[in-house]
Specification:
Order of helices and strands of chain B: HHHHEHEEHHHHEHHH
Number of helices of chain C: 22
CATH topology of the largest domain in chain C: Rossmann fold
Number of domains of chain B: 1
CATH architecture of the largest domain in chain C: 3-Layer(aba) Sandwich
Largest interface: B-C, 44 and 47 residues
Largest sheet of chain C: 6 strands, mixed
Largest sheet of chain B: 2 strands, antiparallel
Number of helices of chain B: 12
Oligomer: heterotrimer
Strand content of chain B: under 5%
Strand order of the largest sheet of chain B: 1-4
Strand order of the largest sheet of chain C: 8-9-10-5-11-12
Helix content of chain C: 55-70%
CATH class of the largest domain in chain C: Alpha Beta
Distance between the termini of chain C: 56 Å
Number of domains of chain C: 2
Shape of chain C: elongated
Structural class of chain B: mainly alpha
Number of strands of chain B: 4
Chains: A alpha/beta (234), B mainly alpha (288), C alpha/beta (596)
């Protein structure tokens, strides 16, 4: 589904990614873990078109999308749930969800998509008319995920969805993410909360200082010294 | 000189009414400015010059026998194109919001000179059949040109409000203004939308210009007289809104009119500028 | 221990002497007996030089573009006119009063406006424009003008020169010479350095110790006084003064144009612009193309913004510099570095330097810091750790004064610092770096560091500050880059520039915010060595970091934050093994399986 070859991304003057290569197969739920400053957000934002790669290739469903203008990534079938949610705070929950489905294909399915999102996150039903900025962190995260789902993507990108949320909500969030994946959407999840991430995913990569340093199944990775060293320094 | 005289009830009511009319024009002029500043982050001083250019074009066409309201059919598309073209140039040169103030001021000077070259600095008044109609409603005079202005201002404000509120395009514009990177990630083509919006703002300016021509005497130097008070209306209402400039404009227009009736006309500018200062001091965040 | 002394800078007095000499030479022009037309033209050029240069002192240097210069100029005009026509004051005596009135007006406006956070850029421009119209309306409606204008036909013109017009010329010449001298003096002084810093990054300047409010007010006061004098002279020149001519948008916009064209960052830029524009306008008017003149001005302004956003003068300067084969040499550094002086009760190593108690900060209901107690001991390197969003950067921002705390106290060397202005915290001996370097983009690397030495470190002359700055550049290994602009540096060098800047004020406490992020492994090693040297030469270091091996290598102690609260404290190797810390970083459910 997604192949990334030797991706290099500069962030201002700094080099954030130093030649990252990995692949996401079929409809799997792939995880990228790594400590802060590793480049996880840079990676996700580049895959969504929000940042430009300085070298390397992104191949999605057989098509090289590296050089596409930013607004065409969504069309290609990729939707993002950005770090920190980044909802349109002054707009209502309903409007935020609708923004997800502006493109023709998604727009035709707007009503059933909306129903599906509300089925996934029933707590949003009474909040549809409220301004997105007034919701709690957990509810905002639901809206952000819902917004991305409204685009009917084939690949869903999630950047640190557990950030700033209490453990109980994190649990619900990840359950929802797993359900989404089971319904057929490929998921690329970037997380700092290694435990939750590895519980949910089938495969994972470890990103450290802009490079992939390890990959494998969750069990394999938790035994590895790289992970402990990357996070705890011990 | 600055004595206070209480006018009669009729006079006061008439003043308020004329304040509503002129306020509607403030609102119409402010609509395009507010959208441009709030959603495009560009302060277009040339907005006023465009309005006046449209006014003069309308005047000219009236001299040649074309009905002012019909001339809109030519003027509106023309200024849509001019507005979109100007914005395209701004994007190409990556002009910052502050520099847009300076560039458009330069443009104002050029347009003013152009107007003065073609039409001289003399005052010009458009004489139309509309100006001859003067309704009398409940003892108050309601001139037709002013009524047309009010009608256009209200209807256009509502149309823009509805588009911003209910259509996908409106939502896309608001989303881009708030977080352009994420908006693009959801497929919003910011560049194309910006050109559309810039063209619309100039088209709105041109409609305001035609209203100007219908109700006021034109002179190139008059361009600057409107800048201050319309900015006050825009900032009072908040940027990027559709109905707010109209309401704020009417509030200012009525305050000015009442001030004029009660004291002397030359005190009127004090109202709008003091309001502007007060808003800027207490809520500068609204303008950012 | 003698400080190395470079050669006396010969050019220091060259410029002011040149200005005075030029002024003196031009004083003889009336003796040439040219037609009155020339006197008037020259008067106008000088008049605009005063207006544009005085405007630039606030607006060009700090970036606060004022559209209200017409108000202060007009205040000067009407003060003089009223004094002369109403109370028969002699002309020359009205000038100081005009300056004073304009000055007071400016200070009143500034005192209010500069207090409000968020009034920058376009908002400031519109606000000052509004002041112009308000003042004009008041004047036209009160007996000061009354709508009839003020006639000065009966006032005697002093006899300086052979003709009346030459008198005005000479007065304007004196004013212009004085204005240029003032503009130059400010530009090379500590005040000017502060103003330019405000232009580039006001918040960083404030945190570095620049008293931004006071400096802006001083610049405004000087600017208005000079405009007032110009107004006073112009009142008599015009002979008949009306509100409609003075309180309009024309003066401010012309002044903006002249300065932008000539170059707002240079003291002589506005003068260059004034000469060019006045000559252009005059030639158009004289040839009866006044209208085309207006269009021409518009075209020039647009062209200037598009192609020469810095102005003519800087462009010429760059061309000039490219032709010269030798680059100007940076000053020599002091020989040995003095250690950071100890202070008060915290003088003993290990004594408590900074004590934060119950420190809290909320943003719109979100508790970034939920009441933390942190102790920093003198001479240590303390690590501040925690997952994303745990409050580490907020802690640094609050202690350095970038944010005001919502609650709690910060006691540094026995003094309470919480709630004080950032520049006072800087001069108390605390400095910080930013995670994403924020150098002053328009200044050289050397000047960036010199600013810190001047404002946080209390050195009063730019020359001495530059010598001090040079030492710190040597310390950080950046001496070869001293005269480059920050954008010529790569990330690693910019981070070191941040460090040099933080150190130049000789702080007792240095707060480092994620200095290592984005660096390659070998660069990280360099940085670690540098941080150690910082501590060794006497500063206490607190740093936020994620790169664990650096944390292990450098820190004496660590504190771990989580969700805005203090989670753990102690030796790094010990703390990182604790279950609650592992849980915070790695998440639930793996605490047991995580052991080797």
């Amino acid at each position: 589904m997604l192949e990334v070859h030797d991706l290099q991304v500069a962030y201002g003057q700094a080099r954030a990614l130093w030649g990252v290569s990995f692949e996401l197969r079929g409809n799997e739920l792939l995880c990228v873990v790594g400590p802060n400053g590793a480049g996880k957000t840079t990676l996700i934002n580049t895959l969504a078109g929000m940042l430009r790669a300085s070298a390397g290739r992104i191949v999605f469903e057989g098509r090289d999308i590296t050089a596409l203008p930013p607004h065409r990534f969504c069309e290609a079938g990729i939707a993002i749930v950005p770090e920190g949610r980044r909802l349109f705070a002054s707009m209502s929950v309903r409007e935020n969800l609708e923004i997800g489905s502006l493109l023709p294909g998604a727009k035709a399915q707007r009503a059933p998509s909306m129903d599906a999102v509300l089925a996934l996150f029933p707590a949003l039903q009474p909040k549809l008319g409220q301004a997105a900025g007034e919701l709690s962190g957990g509810q905002q995260q639901m809206v952000a995920i819902g917004r991305a789902l409204m685009a009917r993507p084939r690949l869903l990108l999630l950047d640190e969805p557990s950030l700033g949320l209490s453990p109980l909500i994190v649990h619900e969030m990840f359950a929802a993410i797993r359900r989404i994946n089971e319904q057929g959407t490929a998921v690329l999840l970037v997380e700092q909360n290694v435990a939750m991430a590895l519980r949910v995913s089938q495969r994972a990569y470890v990103l450290e200082e802009g490079r992939m340093v390890a990959d494998g199944t969750p069990d394999e990775l938790m035994q590895r010294d790289e992970v402990r060293r990357a996070y705890l320094g011990v | 000189m600055s004595g206070f005289t209480m006018p009669s009830a009729t006079l006061l009511a008439q003043s308020i009414l004329s304040g509503v009319f002129v306020g509607a024009l403030y609102g119409l002029l402010g609509l395009g400015l507010s959208l441009s500043w709030g959603l495009l982050r560009l302060i277009n001083l040339a907005h006023f010059a465009f309005a006046f250019l449209a006014a003069y074009l309308c005047y000219q066409m009236a001299q040649m026998g074309v009905d002012p309201l019909l001339s809109l059919g030519l003027i509106v598309p023309l200024f849509f194109a001019i507005g979109a073209g100007l914005h395209w140039g701004m994007m190409k040169f990556q002009i910052t919001p502050f520099n847009s103030l300076l560039v458009t001021f330069g443009l104002t000077g050029i347009v003013e000179a152009l107007i003065q070259t073609i039409w001289t600095a003399d005052f010009r008044k458009l004489e139309s059949s509309y100006g001859e109609h003067n309704f009398k409603v409940a003892g108050l005079y309601v001139p037709l040109p002013e009524l047309i202005t009010l009608g256009l201002a209200v209807s256009l404000s509502f149309v823009v409000w509805a588009v911003l509120r209910y259509t996908d395009l409106g939502k896309a514009l608001r989303a881009s203004a708030e977080d352009s990177a994420v908006a693009a990630a959801f497929g919003i083509n910011e560049k194309r939308n910006a050109l559309l919006l810039a063209g619309t703002c100039s088209a709105l300016a041109s409609i305001a210009g035609v209203c100007l021509a219908l109700g006021f005497t034109l002179a190139p130097s008059q361009i600057y007289a409107w800048i201050g008070v319309v900015f006050a209306a825009v900032m009072l209402g908040g940027l990027g809104r559709a109905l707010a400039p109209l309401i704020a404009g009417i509030v200012i227009g009525v305050s000015e009119a009442v001030t004029m009736a009660v004291t002397a006309p030359s005190w009127a500018p004090l109202v709008s500028f003091t309001l502007l200062i007060a808003i800027l001091l207490f809520r500068p965040g609204r303008a950012a | 221990m003698a400080a190395a002394v470079g050669p006396r800078e010969p050019s220091r007095w060259r410029i002011p002497l040149a200005i005075v000499a030029l002024g003196a030479a031009l004083a003889f022009v009336p003796a040439l007996g040219l037609p009155a037309f020339y006197d008037s033209l020259l008067y106008l050029i000088l008049h605009w030089i005063v207006l544009a240069t005085s405007w630039n002192i606030l607006s060009g240097y700090t970036g606060y573009f004022s559209f209200g210069h017409g108000a202060f100029f007009g205040a000067g005009i009407y003060t003089s006119a009223t004094l002369m026509s109403r109370w028969d004051w002699p002309f020359l005596w009205t000038l100081p009063v005009a300056a004073a009135v304009a000055c007071v007006l400016g200070v009143v406006v500034g005192a209010i406006v500069f207090r409000v956070k968020g009034i920058r850029g376009e908002v400031f421009a519109l606000l000052t424009l509004a002041v112009t119209f308000v003042l004009g309306t008041i004047i036209v409606n009160t007996p000061i003008d009354g709508g009839n204008g003020v006639s000065l036909a009966a006032v005697a013109i002093p006899k300086f020169g052979p003709t009346p017009s030459s008198t005005f010329y000479l007065l304007a010449l004196i004013a212009a010479t004085a204005t240029l001298l003032v503009a130059w003096a400010i530009a090379v002084s500590k005040l000017g350095a502060g103003l330019f810093a405000i232009h580039d990054d006001e918040d960083a300047a404030e945190v570095m110790g620049v008293p931004t409010y006071r400096y802006k007010l001083v610049a405004l006061a000087i600017s208005c006084s000079l405009a007032g004098v110009a107004g006073g002279i112009h009142a008599l020149f015009l002979n008949y003064v009306t509100v409609g001519e003075v309180f309009t948008i024309t003066v401010p916009l012309t002044v903006v144009l002249m300065s932008v064209l000539g170059g707002t960052r240079h003291w002589a830029g506005p003068a260059v612009g004034a000469v060019v524009i006045t000559l252009l306008l005059y030639s158009f008017t004289a040839a009866d193309y006044a209208v085309a003149g207006k269009a021409m001005i518009g075209v020039i302004l647009i062209a200037a913004i598009l192609f020469m956003p810095d102005g003519i003068l800087p462009r010429l300067q760059r061309l000039w510099q490219r032709r010269r084969s030798d680059r100007p040499a940076p000053p020599l550094a002091r020989a040995p570095l003095p250690t950071v002086p100890a202070h008060g009760s915290a003088a003993a190593v290990g004594g408590v330097l900074l004590q934060a108690r119950g420190l809290a900060k909320s943003f719109r209901g979100v508790k970034a810091l939920a009441g933390v107690d942190v102790e920093v001991r003198r001479g240590e390197i303390l690590g501040l750790l925690g997952p994303n969003g745990s409050g580490k950067s907020t802690f640094i921002n609050v202690v350095s004064g970038h944010f005001l705390p919502s609650g709690g106290s910060v006691v540094f060397e026995g003094k309470e610092l919480a709630g004080r202005a950032a520049h006072r915290i800087a001069s108390a001996g605390i400095s910080r770096t930013y995670q994403i370097p924020r150098p002053f983009a328009h200044q050289t690397v050397l000047d960036n560091v010199a600013l810190a030495a001047m404002f946080g470190g209390g050195i009063n002359t730019p020359a001495a500050a530059r010598r001090e700055a040079m030492s710190w550049l040597v310390f950080a290994g950046l001496q070869d880059k001293a005269l480059d602009r920050p954008d010529a540096l790569n990330l690693h060098q910019r981070k070191f520039l941040e460090l040099a800047r933080a150190l130049a004020s000789r702080p007792r406490l240095v707060l480092l915010d994620e200095v290592l992020c984005g660096l390659t492994p070998s660069e990280i090693d360099d940085a670690v060595a540098l941080v150690r040297r910082i501590r060794d030469q006497g500063s206490t270091v607190v740093f936020v970091e994620h790169v664990m091996r650096a944390v292990m290598a450098l820190t004496d102690r660590v504190v771990v934050f989580d969700h805005g609260e203090l989670l753990a404290e102690g030796l790094a190797s010990e703390v990182m093994q604790r279950p609650e810390v592992m849980r915070a970083y790695l998440g639930q459910a793996d605490v047991d399986s995580g052991h080797a």
